[in-house]
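Posting for a labmate who doesn't have an account.
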Amino acid sequence: MKLLFKLPVAITATMMSTAALSQRFPDPQLTAIATKESIVKAQEIDAYNLGVIAYNWGYPLVRMERVAREYIDVPANKPATSYRAPLNQIGWATELATPAAKDMPTANNDTYYMSAVVNLTEPYVLTVPDTRDRYYVINVFSMYHDHEFNIGRRTTGTKAGKFVIIPPGWKGKIPPAMKAIPVVTDKVWLWGRIHIEADEDPKPVWALQKQFDLRPLSQAGNVNYKVPAATLPQLPDITGNELGFFVHLGYAMQQNTIKQMDDALVGQLERIGLTKAKGFDPSKLTTVQVDALKKALTDAQIQVAAAVANTSTTRNGWNWAPLSGFGYNYPLRAVIAGPYLGGNISEEALYPNRFTDAANKQLNGAGKYEMKFSKTPPVNAFWSLTIYNNDDKMLVDNLVNRYKISDKSPGFTVNADGSFTIYIQNEVPEDSKKANWLPAPKGDFNLFLRFYQPAEELLNETYPLPQVERIK
């Protein structure tokens, strides 16, 4: 006896429709067969892709964990340009950066820097004095190098105030006279600047620096409070380990809260041995996967290095990359956390930079250059032009100890119509040009314009940035 089964009309129609679609839209996945060779290739591709993603996403975490330990390591003979301080303490530079200051590439020569690495075992109170309109800013950075909050002239004014930095998960009350700043990681980096001119008497600024105070909320009213000695555990030793970056990333993942927006991404990293619970465990990775991760590290660095160029626009030869938050642009966040660590958001400061002249030739001390400004840049604080060596991104050593120039520089000359010219060259210029001379190195160099509290004309990119013309 033969049993006959008849499929419902709707299912039959669906099968016919699917077959028709597969002919209209070829899909190799439907007939793909896993082989020994394809499985190995799949492991390689998967590990490589995830390795690149892990670097893009995780570099700021690694960089910040390393910098946190570096900046609390205070040398016995701390130079006056250094801002290092022990954990949970404020460190101030008491001199402007010079070529000898090697803590940070592309350091400005406009402000004294401040640094404080804070381990938020409880909320911490930052007290700021009345600076009487003197420009200052303190960025509150999470361990992802995200701006959590800006304290200073533009955002909170220059009157005295108290700000409470609150770690994730803390429950409690703060005094009503204090401003709460909730953050997403249990450690933060406070990175500050206070403006001073090169020829200004520093004593009033030094007095202001001493009035900035940092302490646990539980000690807010204790006039006898002394900061207890504290430090951070050492990072894992990665000497000779080609996958050392992933070791440090795994450690950083264990030490820091994973943001909810990153949960899905971090879950994918388990396939290359990276987890929040155990850090980096490569024991189950194949040789093919390990080699793919090594290649990923090399290629991801190239990708990240190009992130500013991929994100920025070019205006009259200047690279212009306004920053107002990174969102999901992890490569951009990574490159800013690298050579541009501690950079401000656009509303606070803009940093157009360039490496080439008007003819798109590399800037070099063998040439002589002019920058003609039609008018003073529109800023609500101040501006400057700073020069750096190309190879190490450090300030340029020179006979007159001038590392930046602006309309506030001693003797700076401005024409009757408000225009002015800056002369950039290695050789000492003729007397009529010396006041507006920015000394260049003998080799390749690059330039940074800095606009602090830029006006709308700069933010909307309608202010004409000056060209750099080689005249000889």
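Reply:
Got it, the structure tokens are right above this. The chain has a mean pLDDT of 93.
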